[in-house]
# Entry
Amino acid sequence: MTRLVEIQSHIGGMGELRDIVGAMRSLAGLRLQEAQRALPGVRRYTEAVAAGLASTLLLMAEPEPAKAAEGRRALVLCTAEHGFVGGFNERLIGDAKANLAPGDALFVIGSRGAALALERLQPPVWTHPMASRGAGAPETIRRLMDALYHGIAHGGVGRVEVMFYRYRQGGAPTIDRRLLLPLDLAMLSAKQPRQPPLHNLQPIPLHEKLMAEYVFALLTEAAVESIASENAARFAAMESAYDNVSKKLEELRQEANQARQSEITTELIDLITGAEALNNG
# Structure
């Protein structure tokens, strides 16, 4: 195989690689845009449920002084489901390691993050794939809530927190940590209306239903934020890879031109040498 043929073979392989990277970049960009469009509505819904929950506090008896939560803590991590996201999972696992205490129960959404947590933290008590798109987040969170409530009822869990990447458009995502249970009454009290709400349900069932919906809304928001951040990280990684492959492809094309010129020069020299030999003969 001549050098030109070898280089042309490499060019074909690099071209196919660039097409694959470009397709992955486009898919990440599409899913990022979907999550971006969903986030404002998810955030507004969380605020609306928080306001409704805060209004029910006016219907309840005066709360007792806050006590330290009894039972172990459940820490929920929202990690990446697929690869090519740089240090996305490593940074989140690193922060979780600094906050994880002996006896804490670890719940992990995202297959890649779950494998990393098993390696660097501790065996999770529950794992589940992260939804690939924002539309799939509610079903994932329903499964998570079933596991959390089972842990509260049977596993001695008294406190629930979630850690996730909060998406920042135009900037690097930041790792956020939220308390889910017990409720942050100080934060809710700041949202209380002046007058008690009109209601048909009894105060306690109403409060409990809104509390469950509030936790669901917070976790769904965390999942969609994580999906947006994951795809932003993947888009950036694929953008960089696409540029690198394109540069390498251009270098190979330049090498191919040089090899082609060298072959042409060699052929001309052979022709001239052959002609001179015939003339001399």
Observations:
- Helices lie at 3-56, 88-99, 111-120, 137-154, 185-189, 203-280.
- The mean pLDDT is 87.
- The longest strand covers residues 157-166.
- Residues 123 and 139 are 24 Å apart (CA to CA).
